Amino acid sequence: MVDLQVSQVVCERGARPLFAPVSFSLGAGQALQLEGANGRGKTTLLRVLCGLATAHGGQVRWQGAPMAQVRADFHRQMAYLGHALALKEELSALENLCTDAALAGLELSVAQAREALSRMGLRGREHLPLRVLSQGQKRRTALARVMTRRAPLWILDEPFVALDAQAVEHLCRLLGHHVAQGGALLFTSHQPVALPLPGGGFCAVEHLTLEPHP
């Protein structure tokens, strides 16, 4: 079950608020696109939700409890993709996925890792060291890692960056499928996004714009 509640959250940089207090809720089968001008604090807000940064006001609740009390459970049910892909350059894409799963205590077979990479268009490149892959291919590897986490909540910071048009279209279908299966999606993007549903039509995407602090 996904139940993320954000109430009057404020983030600061140099003692200056980045945006007006933010409140929203996100549940199963919902997608929310976070928008705002460059430097407004979109990445900072996502990092706060993931426990990588500290809010300077407001509250975040998961399954009805304050995040500080349930953060371990939240991390088990959340997959995060940030600007820093957190991949090891000396390992192959396949090794990155298998190592990540092992560190997270997740069961992931080599066949499952191969399938995730294949779905992201990396068939035939699974065993290449990451350092020889393009930036777009590295991002595809990180997105495949999100898929293998089997988490109901995906938090993605600019997931379409460095992807070509075909990869963007494919990723949109994967995101739409995730939401259609009862997952939840929170992401940032500067571009309009349409998420196709498996049975036809498109997923409803809510929009939240970070406004400047008054």
In short, what is this structure?
The chain has helices at residues 42-49, 67-76, 93-103, 110-119, 135-148, 165-180, and strands at residues 3-10, 12-13, 16-17, 22-27, 31-35, 57-62, 65-66, 78-81, 153-157, 184-188, 205-209. The chain is α/β, with parallel strands linked by helices.
Commentary on this structure:
- It is a single chain.
- The protein is α/β, with parallel strands linked by helices.
- The protein contains six helices and eleven strands.
- The protein has helices spanning 42-49, 67-76, 93-103, 110-119, 135-148, 165-180; strands at 3-10, 12-13, 16-17, 22-27, 31-35, 57-62, 65-66, 78-81, 153-157, 184-188, 205-209.
- The strands form three sheets. The chain has a five-stranded parallel sheet with strand order 8-9-10-5-11, sandwiched between helices. A four-stranded antiparallel sheet has the order 4-1-6-7, covered by helices on one side. Strands 2-3 form a two-stranded antiparallel ribbon.
- Helix 3 packs parallel to helix 5 (135-148).
- The longest helix has 16 residues, at 165-180.
- It is globular and about 50 Å long.
SSE layout and pairing:
Layout: E1 3-10, E2 12-13, E3 16-17, E4 22-27, E5 31-35, H1 42-49, E6 57-62, E7 65-66, H2 67-76, E8 78-81, H3 93-103, H4 110-119, H5 135-148, E9 153-157, H6 165-180, E10 184-188, E11 205-209
Parallel strand pairs: 5-10, 5-11, 8-9, 9-10
Antiparallel strand pairs: 1-4, 1-6, 2-3, 6-7
Helix pairs in contact: 3-4, 3-5, 4-5
